[in-house]
Amino acid sequence: MLGRKQARHRSTVEDPLDTTLLFPGQGDFDIRALTTAAASYPAVCEAVELVFEQVDAVGREHGVGPVRPWLEVGAGGLHEASLEVSLLVQYGSSVAVHAALCSVGRAPDRVLAVSFGELPALAATGAVTIADGARLTVHLARTLRRCVGGLTALGAGEARAGELLRAADADDVVVACVNDDASTVVAGPVEQLSAVERLAAGLGLRSARLPLPFTSHHPGLAPRAAELLTAIRDIPIDHPRVPLYSAVAGRSYRSTDDLHGALVDGLVRPARVPDVLRQVAVDGAVFLDAGTGRSLLRSVRRVLGPVTAHPTLAEPAIFSTPSPATVAVPVRGRP
């Protein structure tokens, strides 16, 4: 586990009485935000070194090689990397943000994960070691490479998106992720997605194909989900030590849940962000994002209204040197 809250440290972000840390899915990632923060703030630099030492060990173990050098490639560089490398970098980045927050006394009260974000969230809540979370990430990447299709973001809520799919006769395209009432991601064969995008353009509706070489959150992927479950069954997953809310499960995980099965559910079931956001809406709460983008924070504001929400890496003063009263929190992990 990356720790419990030990002390509060004042920074330019007001110290919260209650904090929810958000772990976004794929599709909104820019490694420059992490490397820029690491260059200026020792807490981030130390967390990156600690986390990626373990991620690199897993990369070598699985024939992927070290991923730490990919942090230096800059904008767009990860598009040249393998899917295993790309996902390991994103996994390690989010875990490092959490570790850095803990080291300055800002461990969250709960976490909320969307899709791929469940993997770093499991590491952040102590359900898996950093290394085992990386192993889960490699297995997921190798499964996703066999999930042929694509994902398209639509500037519409779920009901409007469903109408568009029916109008386009895209019978194998499904709602994959509901972000809020103005943003929905759909998944399916690329030919049918193209038809949906053309119809959306004709109606003046915004659409954008996500730069991901696979599809997900589609019931047709049940065989791939079964393969993934077999591949990861021997990787230990404990119960999260901090409440972990899943946009796929639609709630926080319980001690009776099969978390291996819950992970593979993300291949076949949709993620609905508004449902879990409303469950973590505590008066006066602060939302921090463990990713490098801002799309999940936009959904927070659209769903919950005027709440305090910060793109952590874009406001890195939160990682300023902690006061002497702050106790550093050890990272649970093994190579």
Properties at a glance:
335 residues; alpha/beta; six-stranded mixed beta sheet; five-stranded mixed beta sheet; 11 helices; 13% strand; disordered N terminus
Helix content: 25-40%
Q: What number is the mean pLDDT?
A: 88
SSE-based structural type: alpha/beta
Oligomer state equals single chain
Total count of helical runs of at least 4 residues: 11
The strand order across the widest sheet is 8-7-2-1-10-11
Number of strands: 11
Distance between the termini: 15 Å
State the shape: globular
Which runs of at least 5 residues are low in confidence (pLDDT < 50)?
1-16, 323-331
Structure description:
The protein has helices at residues 32-40, 42-61, 83-103, 118-124, 130-144, 158-167, 190-202, 222-232, 259-268, 273-279, 295-304; strands at 19-23, 110-113, 150-154, 174-180, 183-188, 207-209, 244-246, 251-252, 271-272, 286-289, 308-310. The protein is globular and about 50 Å long. The strands form 2 sheets. It has a 6-stranded mixed sheet, with helices on both faces. Strands 6-3-5-4-9 form a 5-stranded mixed sheet. The chain is α/β, with parallel strands linked by helices. The chain is built from 11 helices and 11 strands. Helix 1 (32-40) crosses helix 2 (42-61), helix 5 packs antiparallel against helix 8 and helix 8 (222-232) runs antiparallel to helix 9 (259-268). It holds the Pfam family Acyl_transf_1.
